[in-house]
């Protein structure tokens, strides 16, 4: 355990529940509490409680906030309605991905940008630099803010037990990628219907000084709904089944949005110039030389990040993430492969430490929940 690693406001709660820890992005985070398989299945069948307080929160305010974010990020944030959220990317001038992030529009002139843990200081600084010619304020609120997620089929029921009766409709009617301010366990929060697991669920922004109170209340309320605290191991297997990228694996400065399958995130229709536009706009019209694809193992052995994808003994790509899927019962992986071998149904091999194993290119996400009719669709 690194002595320089940061602790979230919930660190002592994780210790009390027997968590084993890992360093992630410079933070000591719970890897698991019991079995990562139990935690994974709990999120698929009931609900899991996650501490995501290592994520960043950067508040952007001012009369030119929307115009500024249209310049700083690749998406069109100006058209987003108040109360909505958008997944986007912040790129370099050369088109590489600095980070993927979610931006929430809190008011006409107020946005909350949420970058990934290890990238939070980098993104905050990049936004400050890019804001120089705009009438905006960029404030890194990461240390003062905690983020707690409740994910799974019973997540809504847990939230309803934490909320005031008069706020029940706000929770039930909250759409996917939207947010609302209300009280949970008597505490003011920003509640968002977003997540990284492939399940219905919520992410809750709350002041770090009262985060322990909400965590404990959620555990108590969730007891009747099968909720368990879950760590990063389950979060990683859940997001991989859902085909969601992880920065440093599927995304990085050496990748562009189009090869990562995130071309639709790049808005070249907006009139605004944006950082990276000169490089990215021409790429929209051409086939990427490599593409991020899903792989399914023919056998039982799993591919891991860094393993070569080969065809006829010749390397044609690299695995970025891989594991045995707890939900599906067979190994899956994400990999960048040459475009000539990226079509669905293509048979390839992965070099598993000198032993080639057969895999097939399949669509992603690997897992997709059955969505009941309702506002969260």
List the strand order in the largest sheet: 10-11-12-9-3-13
What's the architecture of the largest domain, going by CATH?
Answer: 2-Layer Sandwich
Tell me the total number of β-strands. Answer: 19
Task: Tell me about the largest β-sheet.
Answer: 6 strands, mixed
Kindly name the structural category: alpha+beta
Rg from alpha-carbon coordinates: 21 Å
Which percent band covers the strand fraction? 25-35%
Low-confidence stretches: 373-377
Average pLDDT for all residues: 96
- Amino- and carboxy-terminal Cα gap: 41 Å
- What characteristic shape results from the CA principal axes? globular
Q: How many helical stretches?
A: 9
N-to-C SSE string, H for helix and E for strand: HEEHEEHEEEHEEHHEEEHEHHEEEEEE
Summarize the amount of helix as a percent range: 10-25%
Q: What is the total number of structural domains?
A: 3
CATH class of the largest domain: Alpha Beta
CATH topology of the largest domain: Gyrase A, domain 2
CATH superfamily of the largest domain: Probable tRNA modification gtpase trme, domain 1
Family: Belongs to the GcvT family.
Domain GCVT N-terminal: 10-270
GO molecular function, one term: aminomethyltransferase activity
Protein name: Aminomethyltransferase
């Amino acid at each position: 355990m690194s002595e320089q690693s940061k602790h979230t406001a919930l660190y002592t709660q994780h210790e009390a529940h027997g968590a084993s820890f890992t360093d992630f992005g410079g933070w000591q985070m719970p890897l698991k509490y019991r079995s990562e398989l139990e935690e994974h299945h709990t999120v698929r069948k009931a609900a899991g409680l996650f501490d995501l307080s290592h994520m960043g929160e950067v508040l952007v305010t001012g009369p030119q906030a929307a115009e500024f974010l249209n310049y700083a990020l690749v998406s069109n944030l100006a058209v987003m309605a108040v109360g909505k959220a958008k997944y986007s990317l912040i790129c370099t001038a050369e088109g590489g991905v600095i980070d993927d992030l979610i931006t929430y529009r809190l008011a006409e002139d107020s946005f909350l940008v949420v970058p990934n843990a290890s990238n939070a200081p980098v993104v905050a600084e990049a936004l400050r630099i890019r804001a120089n010619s705009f009438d905006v304020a960029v404030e890194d609120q990461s240390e003062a803010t905690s983020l707690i997620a409740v994910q799974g089929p019973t997540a809504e029921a847990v939230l309803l037990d934490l909320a005031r009766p008069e706020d029940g409709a706000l929770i039930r009617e909250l759409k996917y990628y939207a947010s609302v301010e209300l009280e949970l366990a008597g505490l003011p929060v920003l509640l968002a219907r977003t997540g990284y697991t492939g399940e219905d669920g919520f992410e809750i922004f709350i002041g770090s000084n009262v985060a322990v109170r909400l965590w404990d209340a959620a555990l108590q309320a969730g007891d009747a709904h099968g909720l368990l605290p879950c760590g990063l191991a389950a979060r990683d297997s859940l997001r991989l089944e859902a085909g969601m990228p992880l920065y440093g694996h599927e995304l990085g400065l050496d990748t562009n949005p189009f090869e990562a399958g995130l071309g639709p995130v790049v808005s070249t229709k907006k009139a605004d110039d944006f950082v990276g536009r000169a490089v990215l706009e021409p790429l929209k019209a051409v086939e990427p030389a490599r593409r991020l694809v899903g792989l399914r193992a023919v056998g039982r052995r799993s591919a891991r990040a860094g393993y070569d994808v080969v065809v006829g003994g010749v390397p044609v790509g690299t695995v970025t993430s891989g594991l045995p899927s707890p939900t599906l019962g067979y190994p899956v992986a994400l990999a960048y492969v040459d475009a000539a071998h990226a079509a669905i149904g293509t048979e390839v091999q992965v070099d598993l430490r000198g032993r080639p194993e057969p895999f097939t290119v399949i669509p992603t996400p690997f897992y997709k929940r059955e969505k009941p009719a309702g506002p969260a669709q």
